[in-house]
Amino acid sequence: MKHIVKILSLLVAISAFWIGLLQAAIVPRSHTWLLPIYFVVSLGCYGLLMVGIGLMQFPTCPQEAVLLQQDIAEAKDFFKHKGVDVGSD
């Protein structure tokens, strides 16, 4: 719930800033109307950056990989004894 409040407050702040720019005429109107497009593009770039950083920092767990391989071997043996074809090794 707190995350939603943060997002909504950020959206309200950006909207207030945009309306303020429209009212004050500091930036030409032709540029001011492009601000939402810039915002969406920037948000997309930020999202891709966060996904990339998350993938780069994805932890590897060698111990868990060994345990998983052991579980797979046990399951293959179990199904071979039951007469199920589990493919080639």
What brief labels describe this structure?
89 residues, mainly alpha, 78% helix
Gist of the model:
The protein is 78% helix and 0% strand. The chain is an all-alpha fold and 89 residues long.
Number of strands: 0
- The computed structural class is mainly alpha
How are helices and strands ordered from N to C?
Answer: HHHH
Q: Characterize the largest beta sheet: strand count, sense, and whether it forms a barrel.
A: none
Portion of residues in beta strands equals under 5%
Q: Tell me, rounded to a whole number, the average pLDDT.
A: 83
Number of helices: 4
Helix content: over 70%
How would you describe the shape?
rod-shaped
What is the alpha-carbon Rg in Å? 27 Å
Cα distance, first to last residue?
Answer: 49 Å
Low-confidence stretches: none
What does this structure look like?
- Belongs to the DPM3 family.
- Pathway: Protein modification; protein glycosylation.
- Its main location: endoplasmic reticulum.
- With about 90 residues, the chain is mainly α.
- The protein contains four helices and no strands.
- The model has no long low-confidence stretch (mean pLDDT about 85).
